[in-house]
Write a structure and sequence with these properties.
- The complex is a heterodimer of chains A (about 120) and B (about 110).
- Chain A is mainly β.
- Helices cover about 0% and strands about 55% of the residues of chain A.
- In chain A, strands 2, 4, 5, 6, 9, 10 and 11 form a seven-stranded mixed β-sheet that branches. A four-stranded antiparallel β-sheet of chain A has the order 1-3-8-7, with no helix packed on it.
- The termini of chain A are far apart.
- Chain B has about 110 residues and is an all-beta fold.
- In chain B, the strands form two sheets. Chain B has a six-stranded mixed β-sheet with strand order 2-10-9-4-5-6, with no helix packed on it. In chain B, strands 1-3-8-7 form a four-stranded antiparallel β-sheet, with no helix packed on it.
- Chain B is globular and about 35 Å long.
- The termini of chain B are far apart.
- The chains are: A mainly beta (about 120), B mainly beta (about 110).
- The interface between A and B is medium-sized, with 22 and 23 residues.
């Protein structure tokens, strides 16, 4: 079945870096756009970034532009989120999700189980 | 960015009740809205996409409606497994913003 498994979360000091991974299985990874989203008690659910199926385009929420980079390795069925210059407000559970599209409509399905990132000194 | 609001923020209901949750967008988003259910400690699950299309495998007691700026998610007869938090999300343009959620508790 379709499965997404995130890893790489942990506790990191402000200003440091972390790379999250999302291992995909059960579908043709290279045919789907992929998202990162995050959830915190303060900000709720927040869309972070999207990358097209072939890595040709990326989009970011303003709060992470210039600090986070989404990428993918279709040969390894893996999505990444490189997070640099981490701030306390980046503390959240980070989810990867597959993009589904029908015409101009898009949605997230399924989501991974999430990985917790805590930014604290 | 498009702002999404939801009402109520929480509600208490009994098994068998009809429940309606409202989501409002800060500008017209046509039918570009999705609904997700999240249970504690779990990732969100897709319920409805494109305002009214039920995701495969989702019970028919769930339904969505609306267009423009005002949308509703309805549960016709609340079941024990439906106690959860529900989120709307717009996919009209990036960033694809979410509503703050509506928690449905047992009365």
């Amino acid at each position: 079945q379709v499965q997404l498994v995130e890893s790489g979360g942990g506790v990191v000091q402000p200003g440091r870096s972390l790379r999250l991974s999302c291992a995909a299985s059960g579908f043709t990874f290279s045919s789907f756009g992929m998202y990162w989203a995050r959830q915190s008690p303060d900000k709720g659910l927040e869309w972070v970034a999207v990358i097209r199926y072939d890595g040709s385009n990326e989009y970011y929420v303003d709060s992470v532009k210039g600090r986070f980079t989404i990428s993918r390795d279709n040969s390894k069925n893996t999505l990444y989120l490189q997070m640099n210059g981490l701030r306390a407000e980046d503390t959240a559970v980070y989810y990867c999700a597959r993009e589904r599209v029908s015409g101009a409509y898009s949605w997230f399905d399924p989501w991974g189980q999430g990985t917790l990132v805590t930014v604290s000194s | 960015d498009i702002q999404m609001t939801q009402s109520p923020s929480s509600l208490s209901a009994s098994v068998g009740d009809r429940v309606t949750i409202t989501c409002r967008a800060s500008q017209s988003i046509s039918s570009y809205i999705n609904w997700y259910q999240q249970k504690p400690g779990k990732a969100p699950d897709l319920l409805i996409y494109a305002a009214s299309t039920l995701q495969s495998g989702v019970p028919s007691r769930f339904s969505g409606s609306g267009s423009g700026t005002d949308f509703t998610l309805s549960i016709s007869s609340l079941q024990p497994e439906d106690f959860a938090t529900y989120y709307c999300q717009q996919s009209y343009n990036t960033p694809f913003t979410f509503g703050p959620g509506t928690r449905v508790d047992i009365k």
